[in-house]
Design a protein that fits this description.
The chain has about 160 residues and is mostly helical. Helix 3 crosses helix 5, helix 4 packs across helix 7 and helix 6 runs antiparallel to helix 7. About 80% of the residues lie in helices and about 0% in strands. The longest helix has about 35 residues. The chain contains eight helices and no strands. The radius of gyration is 20 Å and the shape is globular.
Amino acid sequence: MDSFTIFSFIFFTAMVAFASWIITRRESLSTRDGYFLGGRGLGWFLVGGSLFLSNISANSLVGEPEAVYIANMSVMMWGFSSIVAMVLVSEFILPIYLRLGVVSTPDYIGRRFDPSVKQWIGALFVISYMVNLMPPVLYTGAVVFNGMFDVSGTFA
């Protein structure tokens, strides 16, 4: 990995950060609606793009093609069916969240039932995320970066 690659990565990352700051400097991002809901001013394209890009990870880019290669194309149905799930969520559940002013599922459950249930559900979601999702995503990301940048050879 040469210095131009590192410099260009840092430069473009800084440019995106600067452009984001210029665009959002007049918005109140310190409030709950401003931080989690974008001031309630985001259009369908940004909300849909956020849902789509939140669904993509190293597992989607590395693990699923490998599983297709090893097994068959039925693995791709998982990714395709998630589009249907995102459309259903954005059509039926998201308007309820926006109307009530909640920003997460534990927040909704806390309003619907009890704040103690909100704490339990939040802890359950975090533990489930750490145990089920983070290890394969971090591992596949490490495999990809090692293959792209030869990290193990650089630090060996």
